[in-house]
Give the backbone structure.
Amino acid sequence: MTTTTPDPARTAATTPVAADLPPLVDAVPLLREIGDLKRLRDASGTGSLADRAFLRSWRRLLAGQDPEHVAADETARALAAARLGGIDAAVLRVAGLTPADVRVVLRRSADAAVASAGETLGELSDVLDEIGAETPVEGTLPSPPPFAVALVHQPRAGATHPTRPRVLVEPPESHGDHCFVTAVYSALLAPAQGVRRGDAFLVALAHHLPNADLPDAGFGGELLLGEHLPAVFATLTERSLAQLPGALSARLRELLPQRETTATAIGRVFNAADVLDRVLQVHHHARAAAFTAEQALDDLDLVHPGPVQGFQLRVLSDAGLPVR
């Protein structure tokens, strides 16, 4: 469910549109990989990597960490995870790598992912320099706020329309998934609009606060709530903000209204990141539905080159499952 109040009087002709966002076509492969953190899991915790990063981000903010640092560090982690998945600094340290080796491996992964975007996202040294940096042990962080826990359990509605049945796709992403990925996209896009990464990250991380209490019925549900929608969103947003320290909640009260316009730089960053994630999520489901065995076998080298490849290919051929 989006958190922008529908305004029938507002039209495309009267809504400011950003003219200075860089063309993002070259960034889409990287954005897709970051989006896949919604679907990657490992044995070190429950939920997707994105859900866990969403909760960790809120825990760090509750601990009083600077949003600018949290944004840069969590974006750096996401860039490394784009290729390494759950192989993070903690795993590499358990495996015996030195801190220097950990930084090399994580930076190598992030650089490989970022290379696919060319120069589209501009200078990322402030983010990439965070790769492998020492961060507080998660066990020392406070518990996440209740609304954040609710959001990782609250599924997204998918594509809805007020006069048509919704299109259901399985498995649905969570609001934690969507908010974290949108926050990373926002942090990446922020400098091009002269916006601090921390502010952009915060807005996106918090943009679905009402859905901690409000099950998602999508855009169609918003229109059906009609004249009650603004009050519902305002009441439920305040319920969530009340769970945060005063300074953080006050900052969010300043920032969040800007997500409803493209007349501000933060609004442009957020709305670009939000729509990119929503549309790339639909593209993911379309690609998954069209996936074929040939793509894995031929395009992705499922039976990958190595000393046993010849033997494996003969086994498959003898089983009537030849690989081209």
Summary: Residues 278 and 318 are 44 Å apart (CA to CA). The two ends are 45 Å apart (CA to CA).
